[in-house]
Amino acid sequence: MNPVELHNALQIHRPVLGDTVGLALFRLVRLVAMEDILGAGASAVTYYAGKKLGRELGLTKLDDFLALCDQLKIGLIKIPTLTDHLIHVDVCECVTCSGMTPVGRVLCHFEGGLIAGAVGSILKKDVQAREVSCIGGLGNATCGFDLVIP
């Protein structure tokens, strides 16, 4: 059985419904179904899935990643800290959790992995992301990620 490759998954032909889907469906799969099936391991699986996807995008410039985030409506991305060893990324209106009632833990593992994978690919380093704030998880204003650059 052949895996579904990135370029194939991004080919969309829906003449009537278009290339968008309701955010509720994404959240039901991502936050409810995956956690129900994978339990406590869901956060690690979604982080590494995001990281693998971020690397496979093959991006070479940070501006290209920001444009992709805008195109896919992942959220409004801001980078208030950018140094040789630390990048802080804030995601406003996060696709995974914006608008939710806080649940007492961070939720946006996929986004953290995606950011770490894409930035790591751009910098050609193994970047790790840690979510330090979360809109729907902790009630913060943004979903914030600290990226440690080795």
TrEMBL record:
Name under which the protein is recorded: 4-vinyl reductase 4VR domain-containing protein
Record-annotated 4-vinyl reductase 4VR domain positions: 86-149
Coiled coil: none
Provenance organism: Sphaerotilus microaerophilus
SMART domains in the cross-refs: V4R
Domain of life, per lineage: Bacteria
PANTHER family, alphabetized: ARSR FAMILY TRANSCRIPTIONAL REGULATOR, DNA-DIRECTED RNA POLYMERASE SUBUNIT I
SUPFAM superfamilies reported in the protein's UniProt record: Ligand-binding domain in the NO signalling and Golgi transport
Pfam family, one: V4R
InterPro entries cross-referenced by the UniProt entry: NO_sig/Golgi_transp_ligand-bd, V4R
